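Please annotate the following for my students:
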Amino acid sequence: MAPHYFIDAYNVIHKSSLLRPAARLDLERARDMLLDLVQCFCMTGDYDVTVVFDGREEEQTRQTAPLSGRARGMHLVYSPHHTSADTVIERLIYQAANRMNCIVVSNDRSLRDQCRGMGALTMEADSFLASVRQVQQGAREVLNKRQTATALLLEDQLSPGNISALAALRDQLARKEEPGKPRSAPKKK
C-alpha cells in the first residue's frame, strides 16, 4: 500500500528553504508553488497526499473553483475556525486505519512527536521536497528514455512526406524487372 502524506502546509511553506523566500514576497505564490509540487508528486507516483491549511474565515469562503482538477490522490483540507492544522492532522492520524503507512510532513516538533507516538512516520519540510524532486527526476528520466528509444527508429524521425516518397521509390524498385528480360509498360493507376 502506498504511503499517505499529511502536510502541515503553512509550516512547510515557512520552514522549507525552497518556499520560505517565495512566502516572504508573496504568500499566495508560495501556496501555489506547494500545491503544484504536491500535484506533480501525486501524478508521478502512487501517493495520497492530504495538504492541511490553517483555516481562516477568508479562506473558508474563498472560491475553490481553481482547486478543482487537481491530481488523483491529492486532497486539500482547511482546518475549521479556531482549530489549527496541527489538530486536524493529529485527528486524521488518530483515525487512520494503518498509521504505519502515514507520513506527517512538518518541522513542528510537538506535532511530529505526537504523530510518531501514534505510530505515524514523520519528515521535515526540506526532506519531503527533496523526495518530490527525486520522484520528478525519476519521471523525467523515464520520459527521456522513452523519447530516446522512439527516436532511434528512422521512421519516427522522417516527415510523412518523406515516408511517402520512400514508399513510392521502394514500390518503383520492386516493379523493375530483372536484367535481360523485356520491360513491361508501367502500370497506370
